[in-house]
Structure formats: C-alpha cells, structure tokens
Amino acid sequence: MTNSLRVAVIASNRFPIREPFAGGLEAHVSHLSRALASRGHRVSLFAAPGSDLAPGCEGLAVRFLELSESARHDISMPDAVFMSDHHAYLSLMLWLAGPGARQFDVIHNHSLHYLPVAMAPALSIPMLTTVHTPPTPWLESAIDAAAGEGTRFSAVSRHTADAWRKVIDDMAVIPNGVDTRMWPLGPGGRALVWFGRITAEKAPHLAIAAARQADRPLVLAGPISDESYFAERIAPQLHGNITYVGHLEHQRLARLVGESCTALATPAWDEPYGLVVAEAMSCGTPVVAFARGGIPELIDDDSGRLVPPDDIAAMAAAIDSTVRLPRNRVRERAIRHCSARAMVTAYADLYQNMINDVALRN
C-alpha cells in the first residue's frame, strides 16, 4: 500500500489541462492527476493557465517573462514561443531545486521540453520522466549532457522504450490507461468514426479514403491543429457520407464513439501509444488501425484488425470483419489491457520505490 504522497506533475506550459483536450498527452495528465488525487495523494500541477484542476489538485503558476524593449530587439532574440517556454521551465526547475523541494516527495515530468531533464541533477527529490514521443534532439541532448542523472524514465509502450534505447538503458514501461467508466460500452451503429487531432501526422484523409472504398459513412471529430491541412485535404471531402462534427467535449465524444460500428486509426508516424485506440475499445467499438508504433501492443483479433501502414485498400477490406466482433469482448480487452487503474497503481508504486531508493542512499 503506497503512502499518501505529495506529487508535483509537470505538463505543458502552452496547453491547458481541460476538456476538450488539445491532445493525448493532456488527456493522460488529466486522468492521472485526478486518479492520484482520488487515492489521497496531494497533486500540484504545472500546466498552462486555465487548466481544470480536480478536487485535491492545486496549480503551480507558470511564470511569464516581460522582456525589455532592448532585449526583444536584440539580434540574439529567439522565437517568442521558444523564449516563453525556456523561461517557464527554467523558473519552475530553479524553484523545485530550491525552496519548492520541501513541498514535494516526488516529481513526475511529462513535458517534452529539455530543461526539466537537463536540470534534474540539481534536484534533491526524485523525479520520474515519462516519454510520450519518439526521441527528439533536444531531449536526447539533455539526457546525454546530464548523463541521465536526477531522473528515472518510463515509456508509454514497449515500442517507445525501444526507440529511446540509444540514450536510456533502464526504462520502466507503464502503458497509458483510460478510465473505462468515462468510455462506457455503446450500442454501435452503421457509421465509422475517426477522432483525434486533425493534422497530417494523424492522416484522417486516409480514413476518408478507406470509408469511401468500404462504402460506409464516416464521422470525424477532433480539434483542427493544422488549418492548412484541414482546408486542403479534409474540407473538400466533407460531403455525402463524410461529416466533421468539431471538437467535442468528453460526454458527446464518448457517445459518438460508442454509437459507431468501427473506429479507424490512421497514423502517418509511429504513434507512441495510441490513446484513441484504447478509448474506442473501452466503448466496445472495434478498431482498424495501421500497424505502427505502440498500436500493435493494444489490438488483438478480438478487438480489431491491424493493417499495413498507409494501405487504404487493406483498411477498407478489414472493416466488415470488425463490425461482427462482439462489442462486450472488445471492451473486456480494454479493461484488461488499457485500464487507468492499473496505470495509476504502477506509477504510485514506482514513486514509492524511487523515494525509498533516495532514503537508502542518504
């Protein structure tokens, strides 16, 4: 049994942790923070202003930088967003390395920024960094420069852990989890569904092509993260049986997914985990997905079909067989393999082990 812990959670300084979520990382941080707080842990969340804090959670302020006019016009001035990110994380990490350390037992870093990892050796309390993406040059540089000191690492899938193996030897694998109560079993329907961020790397245009080949209606849902991509590749195809319903809040999205016959997942990159796959399966909705990244770790023959990446014909052909899958069996797969409860327990146990390791060394 893990004792009640004081946990500082580091997320993005740009995107608020609130519905409708900007992406899978924000949804993950929200669910984890709420679940930790519900178990009696004290959670402090560093995230963009406007975040929706759960009962038992408090916010850590993001510090903004007001540069002088001379500094703003200096030849060395970088992009304004880069400078804002740099100052926010630099301020946070200096505080956690100093007076803030007394307020926490452990830090859980989900940020994609390099500074939390680079400055981890200055911390007196343990930090866990969960990698949610493939390797980036900035993070690899930080890990190399800090020699991996000051932070433990975890990955959201075996695929992601393998991708980071060049710079991180010892990495726990704790798969993301979904709150299956928030994604209840649905009755299904005739239409296909695709949901997620509307961007080229998620490739919903391929889902549209597969739906047309399968002669089935398709509903798209999610935030438009790339306006040019949406205007060029998606908007011209929104006619007939292809509809876009916008960026839905959670209840409406879960209802839509549960009332769909099959979900399509069409990543054009190696998706580290595939949260939408787990969410759809929790609703009993089978998934046809490109076999990329961490997605093959989620889907079995009882919950969907994997097809070769970018193979529209194979995706279209696989749809009919998934429609006949028993929806309760699909949901059972999600409960067994994609449960938020198991994820939270694994993280809490790892926090306690890290704290115990520090105590033994001291």
Could you characterize what this model shows?
This protein has helices spanning 24-38, 69-72, 80-97, 115-118, 137-145, 158-163, 204-214, 227-234, 250-258, 275-282, 312-323, 327-337, 340-361; strands spanning 6-10, 42-46, 57-60, 106-109, 127-131, 151-155, 171-173, 192-195, 218-221, 242-244, 262-265, 287-290, 304-307. With 362 residues, the chain is of the alpha/beta class. It folds into two domains: 6-177 and 339-361, 3-Layer(aba) Sandwich (Rossmann fold), CATH 3.40.50; 192-337, Rossmann fold (3-Layer(aba) Sandwich), CATH 3.40.50. Helix 6 (158-163) links the parallel strand 6 (151-155) and strand 7 (171-173). Helix 1 (24-38) crosses helix 13. The radius of gyration is 21 Å and the shape is globular.
**Gross CATH architecture of the largest domain:** 3-Layer(aba) Sandwich
What does the average pLDDT come to? 94
The class by helix and strand makeup works out as alpha/beta
Number of DSSP helical runs: 13
The share of residues in extended strands comes to 5-15%
CATH superfamily of the largest domain: Glycogen Phosphorylase B
- Name the helix and strand elements from N-terminus to C-terminus, one letter apiece: EHEEHHEHEHEHEEHEHEHEHEEHHH
Tally of extended strands? 13
Radius of gyration, taken over Cα atoms and rounded to an integer in Å: 21 Å
Low-confidence stretches: none
Output the strand order for the largest sheet: 3-2-1-4-5-6-7
**Helical percentage:** 25-40%
CATH class of the largest domain: Alpha Beta
Domain Glycosyl transferase family: 192-334
Pfam families: Glyco_transf_4 (PF13439), Glycos_transf_1 (PF00534)
Domain Glycosyltransferase subfamily 4-like N-terminal: 23-180
Organism: Mycobacterium asiaticum
